[in-house]
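Please check this record.
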Amino acid sequence: MKENKPYDSSLVGFIYGIAAYVLWGFLPLYWKLLDKIPATEILAHRILWSFMFVCTVLYFNGNLHKCKEVFKDKLNIVRISCATVFITINWGTYIWAVNSDHIVEASMGYYMNPLIVVVLGVVILKERLNTWQIVSLIMATIGVGIVTMSYGQIPWISLILALSFGLYGLMKKMIPVGSTVSLALETAMLMPLTLIYIIFRQVSGIGALGNISAATTFILIGTGIATALPLLWFSEGARRIPLSSIGFLQYISPTISLVLGIFVFGEQFTQTHIVSFGFIWGGLIIYSLSQVKQMRKKNELLRESIEVNG
């Protein structure tokens, strides 16, 4: 039997990672197909069908029992509850933003997310920043400030998306389970409210099911797969490639969304946007390079330690 070489595993990891972020990037096209349905109802169906899909995956993988193990620790219940709130805010805001023609602002939120994560690390985990990370944060803050001063309002969509996803990621780091199990638990917690809301709308005669075409119904049910599939691919990719590589890949998604917003859906991308995004992109480049440098130092120290102790 032929052994898998390390570079074969890395290649597969990159394919999974790229596929996940590309699919996330093209999701605005998917949500636009459902723009006749209220964002809250799309969100409810997304939760319902995601729950059904991930439970099916866990059942066939033989991992359904892992969901019970999480509830043995009360602190995990609190963390999953918090993660559920944050991802619900994130999903709902993103669906509303896309179908309300704010894709450009939504993409800004996901560009800002890595830098928001750094801020959360400092504030909550008491992490220390190096000089270049401080510079990257200053540049991102300037970028947001330019948009705020130019339009006279804070880019709430961007900030809500970046902060909610950053806090969601923070909670996920503290929960000792895989992404699929975590998603199953998060959607399970929302199921009672979700079912009540969907049934209420259906009984009232204003629900989507039965009032939309068969094709749109199929697309609505497919929100579960559209949600869970890239997450599964991401999990597979993250196991095979370094965190620094994942860090670079994550910019694929908002870049695709930004291009779609400007060239497909005709959203405005003014000179102010160019300057603002320029500062944020500059901050991201500096931050990413500093991360790569840090990881190289860690790897060198690890190799030296192995050589000394070997």
